[in-house]
Amino acid sequence: MIVRSALMVAGDKPKHLDKIEVLKADIAIINLEDGVFDKALARQMVADKLKALKNKEFHSKTVVRINALDECGKDDIKVLNGAKPYAIRVPKIKSVDDIKEALELIDKDIKVHLSIETKEALYNLREFNIDDRIEVLYLGILDLLESFKMPQSLLDIDNPSIDYILSKFLIDTKSIELTPLFFTFQDFADTDGFKDWCKKAKAMGYNGTSCISPTQVEIANEIFKADEVAIKRAKYIKEIFEYNKKENNLTGFTDEIYGFIDEPIYKDALNILKHS
């Protein structure tokens, strides 16, 4: 799944819910968890909104972040199963057993997204792709730091401990062939800071990030957009490699435009095209 921008939308604010069909984000994360006071009212409000969506194509972009299963997440799931969002995002997981419990509760035709925001979840992450419904993992950096008993002041773009967390989450998620989403940058007014973090994320190998404002969405969509030059090169390499392999039985040759091309170069081209 390709996600450049995932915008958090308040599940208890009608004016926010009314705008989800015109959002430019790749997916909308409708929030029932942090910051929502009246949980019962919010979950019913979200369910009603999902059922009333006029743009049915946008329905495939709606993800609802529920509460933890040991809080009122099970009640959230019961209501949402009838509203059929594209996916339900489950927070505060720690183990495969937590995921199995969520999978049993969530209807089979609803995708499952997971928040990685506990030290146990980060440690166990490579075990988490246990069902085809699981697609996206979100890095909850602030909760994760709290889980490690580390202060939020460590969240600096040059901090090596943060680099390690970002790298581990990225590589472990990709190693089990799921989509990793970069953490939410909380200071929505600091657009320059957000740009810097997005550029860092892209340089590391991330393809998208969570957002908390439409402005962040615009920035994320621009920074994480497909590289047309790289795509053009990949298409050319794919075509010329497959031609030479079929017609000349060659899997290594020198091209006048891009130099030496062999199977690893070809596989990289396929990877670029698959994720563009």
Sum this structure up briefly.
The mean pLDDT is 92.
Supply database-style keywords:
276 residues, two-stranded antiparallel sheet, 10 strands, eight-stranded parallel sheet, alpha/beta
Description:
The protein is 47% helix and 16% strand. It is an alpha/beta fold. The strands form 2 sheets. The protein has an 8-stranded parallel sheet. The chain has a two-stranded antiparallel ribbon with strand order 9-10. Strand 4, helix 4 and strand 5 (111-116) form a beta-alpha-beta unit. The protein is globular and about 65 Å long.
How does the SSE layout of this entry go?
Elements: E1 5-10, H1 14-17, E2 27-31, H2 39-52, E3 62-65, H3 69-83, E4 87-90, H4 96-105, E5 111-116, H5 119-124, E6 134-139, H6 141-147, H7 160-175, E7 179-181, H8 191-204, E8 209-211, H9 214-223, H10 228-248, E9 252-255, E10 259-262, H11 263-274
Helix pairs in contact: 2-3, 8-9, 10-11
> What string, H for helix and E for strand, traces the elements in order?
EHEHEHEHEHEHHEHEHHEEH
Question: Uncertain regions: pLDDT < 50 for 5+ in a row?
Answer: none
Average residue pLDDT: 92
Helical residue percent?
A: 40-55%
In whole angstroms, the N-to-C terminal distance is 10 Å
Report the total helices.
Answer: 11
User: Quick one: biggest sheet?
Assistant: 8 strands, parallel
* Strand order in space, largest sheet: 7-6-5-4-3-2-1-8
